[in-house]
TrEMBL record, chains A, B:
The keyword Transcription applies. This is GntR family transcriptional regulator. Residues 8-76 form the HTH gntR-type domain. PROSITE patterns: HTH_GNTR.
Amino acid sequence: MVDKESPLPMYYQIEEDIKKRIDEGLFEAGKPIPSERELSEQYEVSRMTVRQAISNMVRNRLLYREKGRGTFVAEKKFEQPLEGVTSFSEDMKRRGLSPHNELLLFEKRKPDETTGELLGLEAEDVYYLKRIRYADGEPMAVEETFIPVRLFPELTEKIFEEMSFYEYIETKTDVSIHRARQTIEAGIAEKEEAEPLAIEEGAAILQIERIGYLTTGVPFERNISTYRSDRYKFISDMYRN
Amino acid sequence: MVDKESPLPMYYQIEEDIKKRIDEGLFEAGKPIPSERELSEQYEVSRMTVRQAISNMVRNRLLYREKGRGTFVAEKKFEQPLEGVTSFSEDMKRRGLSPHNELLLFEKRKPDETTGELLGLEAEDVYYLKRIRYADGEPMAVEETFIPVRLFPELTEKIFEEMSFYEYIETKTDVSIHRARQTIEAGIAEKEEAEPLAIEEGAAILQIERIGYLTTGVPFERNISTYRSDRYKFISDMYRN
DNA sequence: GTTATATAGTTGTCTATACCAATTTTCACT
DNA sequence: AGTGAAAATTGGTATAGACAACTATATAAC
C-alpha cells in the first residue's frame, strides 16, 4: 500500500494510493472516503500526515471536505485538464501530436522598442529566434521568440534543437517560471506568414503573444506565435473566481 | 499583532498580518521574510501554525518557498489580473468599457446534435439566445447561447435585459458556477457574421466557444461568440503548474 | 588565494496529542 | 410514530517536539 522505507514522502504515497482507489472505483464520485482517523490507522501514519495528503488533493480539486460530514470525491475533472502556461512542445504532446522544429534564425540583437519595453530592458541584447513549428510533420505555426541575454548567458542553438526552452529552464538553471500573460487575436495571412505555413494569402491565422515571467517577477521571454487556423484551436480550462 | 482570544483562527490572523507587513513595505518583494521559527516566536504560536499561514499564502502565490534558503515575497501580481471565467459584461467592465445588448432571438427549442452532446442532454429543450454585444455603443460580437431549460425553468427575456446571466445564477439561484472550457479559433467573416458586426466579408474574426459547468459537474451553457478582430483581443493570465 | 570541511540556519516531513465546531446517529421519552 | 436531548463521528485548529534535506557561511587545511 505505502512503503515507510521509500524515499518518497508518506503523504505523497498516500495521495497516489487514494487516487488509485478512486480510479479503481473503490471510492466513488460524490461519496465520502474513509475518515482521516480511519485512514491514519489503515496507512499506519499520524492523522496530520493523512491531512497533508488530503489537503493537497483538495487543492487540486480531486476531493472536497465538509466539516462534520466527511471528505468526498469530487466529480471527475476534465479527462485531460488544459490549464497553465505551456510551451509549444508541451502543448502538442498533450494533444497527442509529435512536435518538431525548423530553426530559421538564431542571433543576438538589440531589441525593438516594443520588445524592450515589454521585457523591461535598457540597452541590453536579446536572443532572437525564428522557428517553424511542426506537429506530426505538418507546419503548424511560425514563432518568434525574444529572450534577454543577461538572464541566460549560456544559451546556444544546440539547446533549442535538443530540448524545449521551458524544460531547459526548469532542469538546467536555478530560476523558475511563474506566470504568463497571453494575448490572442485573429488575423489575415500576409505573404510573410502564408509562405512558411504553406497556406494561401488571405487565410485566417491565430496570433498568440505570450510574455513570460519568472518567480522573481522578471520577464524572461516574449513569444509571438502565428498558427494555421485550420489546424489549431487554442483550448483552455478556466475556473470561476 | 494577533489576538489569541479572537474567534478568528490564529493562522488566518497571521496571514493578514504578513500581508499588512508586505503592503507597508516591511517585507519587500524578492526578499526573504523571517524564518518560520522566528515568526513562531514573534507571534507566540507553534511553528506548524505559522507554516499553515505561510502555506496558504504560497498557494495564493503571495509568497514562495525555497528549501534551505527561506520564504520569499513574490513580485506583485499583474496590476489587474485577467483570470478566470467571465461573462461578456464582466469582461467589458474590467476593460473599462460599457457593455450593452441587442437581443435578436429568445426561444425554447430542441438542441442540435452537437449542443445536445456537449450539454449532456437527451430529448430536452434548451433556451436559445442570439444577441449582438456592444461595447461603448460599438458592435463587438455576436453571441449564441444554449442553456438547458431544466436547470433554470424560470428564465425570461426580461432577466437577460436586466442583468448578466452569471450574475443571475450567483444571486438568484442556489447553484454556482465552477469552471469552463474555452476553445478559441480564427476565422473569416461570412455574410452572416459580417452584417451584424458591421465589417466587410473576408475580414478576420475571433470565435470563442465556452462550455460552462456548475460545481456539481453539470454543464449549464454553451456559448459561441464571434468577435470583431479589429476591436477585440482575448487576454488571459496563466500560471505555470 | 583556493579548496575542503564543519557548522549553523532554513524549509520539508512526521509524530502523538488535545480540544473545538459542525453534523449525524442513537436512544430515551412522550 | 414523533420529538428532543445526548453521544459519537467528522473535519478544523493548535501544540511541542524531532529528524531529514538542503543552503549559505564560517573555518581550517593546503
